[in-house]
């Protein structure tokens, strides 16, 4: 006795019910008319209408996901000949998760990982052949880089780069898997889950280094620099604020700062005293330190908010910079670099003496001289005014002349 199956489900099916049609043959050709036939499900959950088994048609219902085995056993005068059919029921649609190493970045390109729950090769499968033909959808001022697509695990895991705009300082990009673009081997269509979308934030904003000390342009050693000058010995303030809270401690921030003396009548030394960490969010985004200057030859500086308490009157030009490579935001990204600035502290008022060379006193003086004699035929007479130290705001209104016209030409911060 042999059993010939005429109708069966697919080897992988997404149906919870199916029908079997079969016939029992004697000697491989003739039908068995007096056979006793039994049908049953083995190693599976479900139910069958056994009374129909004698007629060669069985309907299976309530099938659970998993492996199933349907068995037919005819019993007649010619003996017993059992046959079975194995198949798998899978009603769970395939899905995929989108991940990245971090949801915050300051990079131009970010690697995105796509992990499928099972192979989804029906239809076209997962493709990303161009910006407009990619099953990873990008919403925002960004786009995928199709040439970067890699298959990390066959039909299960992929990686692709997403390019972020270089002109934008901050923003966000939403990545979402496409809809119904593939099927699994059971025929289930792809469905999104809560992890099939990913929001990526990018932030390239630099540190804000601000102060109430006014800006001035200063020519020093033939180079024009932008400085902030003050004679306020009652703690002038400099504030340094991060765009995002950082994970670093006050001591780590202090160690990343550098103050370089560019010019000084008397070299100074400073010490750093931490004041306040502001913790408005998960980590501090602004720090406060105090700078004290003493009469030595070294200098150290502070972070975010600087309060200067000067105990020895002199003139000092200090360049303040910060190494951002060691500073990490709360999201694990590095901080973009910030331009350094120069700070001038000067408590001495400049003085002008026109009749003699510079005074030997500690007060700054100016010497007025001309290359010509007292008598000349020249229409234009150059006059050199040299200050002992750089001054700001000097113009023609601060001088007077009789019998001629005065014109001004700035040579440097202390030569006119």
Automatic annotation (TrEMBL):
<protein>
    <submittedName>
        <fullName>Uncharacterized protein</fullName>
    </submittedName>
</protein>
């Amino acid at each position: 006795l042999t059993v010939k199956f005429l109708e069966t489900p697919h080897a992988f099916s997404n149906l919870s019910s199916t029908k079997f049609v079969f016939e029992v043959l004697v000697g491989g050709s003739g039908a068995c008319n007096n056979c006793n036939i039994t049908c049953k499900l083995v190693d599976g959950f479900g139910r069958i209408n056994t009374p129909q088994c004698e007629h060669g048609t069985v309907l299976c219902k309530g099938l659970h996901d998993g492996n199933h085995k349907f068995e037919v056993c005819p019993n007649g005068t010619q003996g017993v000949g059992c046959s079975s059919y194995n198949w798998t029921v899978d009603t769970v649609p395939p899905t995929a998760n989108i991940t990245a190493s971090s949801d915050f970045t300051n990079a131009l390109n970010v690697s995105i990982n796509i992990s499928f729950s099972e192979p989804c090769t029906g239809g076209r499968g997962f493709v990303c052949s161009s910006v407009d033909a990619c099953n990873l959808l990008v919403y925002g001022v960004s786009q995928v880089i199709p040439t970067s697509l890699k298959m990390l695990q066959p039909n299960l895991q992929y990686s692709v780069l997403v390019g972020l705009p270089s002109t934008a300082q901050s923003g966000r990009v939403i990545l979402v898997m496409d809809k119904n673009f593939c099927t699994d081997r059971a025929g289930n269509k792809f469905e999104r889950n809560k992890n099939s979308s990913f929001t990526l934030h990018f932030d390239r904003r630099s540190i804000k280094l601000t102060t109430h000390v006014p800006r001035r342009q200063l020519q020093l050693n033939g180079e024009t620099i932008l400085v902030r000058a003050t004679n306020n010995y009652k703690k002038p303030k400099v504030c340094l604020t991060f765009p995002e809270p950082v994970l670093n401690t006050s001591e780590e921030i202090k160690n990343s700062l550098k103050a370089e003396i560019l010019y000084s009548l008397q070299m100074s030394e400073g010490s750093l005293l931490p004041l306040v960490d502001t913790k408005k969010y998960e980590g501090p985004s602004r720090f406060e330190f105090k700078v004290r200057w003493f009469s030595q030859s070294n200098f150290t500086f502070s972070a975010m908010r600087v309060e200067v308490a000067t105990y020895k009157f002199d003139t000092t030009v200090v360049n303040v910079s910060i190494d951002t490579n060691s500073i990490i935001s709360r999201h694990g990204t590095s901080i973009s670099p910030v331009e350094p600035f120069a700070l001038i502290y000067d408590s001495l008022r400049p003085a002008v003496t026109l009749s003699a060379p510079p005074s030997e006193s500690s007060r700054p003086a100016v010497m007025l001289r001309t290359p010509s004699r007292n008598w000349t035929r020249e229409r234009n007479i150059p006059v050199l005014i040299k200050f002992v130290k750089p001054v700001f705001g000097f113009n023609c209104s601060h001088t007077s002349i009789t019998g001629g016209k005065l014109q001004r030409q700035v040579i440097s911060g202390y030569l006119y």
